[in-house]
Amino acid sequence: MAMDVASHTSAQEAFDLLMAGNRRFVSGAVEHPHQDAARRAEVAPSQAPFAVVFGCSDSRLAAEIIFDRGLGDLFVVRTAGHVTGAEVLGSIEFGAGVLQAPLVVVLGHDSCGAIGAARAALDGGATPGGFVRDVVERVTPSVLAARAAGHDSAEAALDEHIRQTVDLLLDRSRALADRVAAGRTAVVGLGYALADGRARLVASRGLDLPADAPDA
What is the pLDDT of residues 69-105, one digit of tens each? Predict the structure, then answer.
């Protein structure tokens, strides 16, 4: 794929590239594209990733591995519980606006420690100290929203947190919202299963895609 892939790839094509790579990863038929010396030399002068991936920092959630991609393909931003701040928003705006990536992905996963800690705290457990507490507190509204809708499972909390993160990016970033409204960028939310490696669609803004319904 050429270096100017982002400017010649639509959001739908970028989404299809990601999901095709994930299917290869799940089946064990990985191709490891763009991971050789030639690619390293190709991308050294500049980058043109086809997707921004904003995911959880969990060590089991390495985007280039689970989507079977390589150097220069993905602009990756990660925080615990994929919670947002100014630096996250600025990084995503840089990837979508400056680097012209047509797709932004919010990537969550099951057995997320931040979501588990928020659920435990709401059920009367101890709240972590230090700055970990801040992470948990920023996840808590998603857990509360899932419960208010009658969904108390960990997967429902995950799906709600992914959806709320997608909406938060568009609410707080005028630049990203304008790009989505103009059809230049799409934002999707994916939930990743640690055991089988499958990524499933949870939310979509700017692409007409059917999302999975959360479990109760």
Answer: 999 999 999 999 999 999 999 999 999 999 999 999 9
Contacts by residues 132-138 (CB-CB < 8 Å, ≥ 24 positions apart): 132/80, 135/79, 135/80, 135/81, 135/83, 136/81, 138/81, 138/83, 138/84
Print burial letters for 166-180: b (CB count within 10 Å at least 16), e (below 16): bebbbeebeebbebb
- Residue 82 labeled ligand binder: no
Find the length of the chain: 216
Domains annotated on the chain, with CATH = 5-205 (3.40.1050.10)
- pTM comes to 0.92
58 annotated ligand binder: yes
* Rg of the chain in Å (alpha carbons): 17
User: pLDDT by residue (tens digit) across 161-209?
Assistant: 999 999 999 999 999 999 999 999 999 999 999 999 999 999 999 998 8
Would you state the structure tokens that stand for residue 141, as one six-digit string?
A: 């509204």
Q: What is the four-CA torsion angle of 8, 20, 36, 105, rounded to 10 degrees?
A: 70
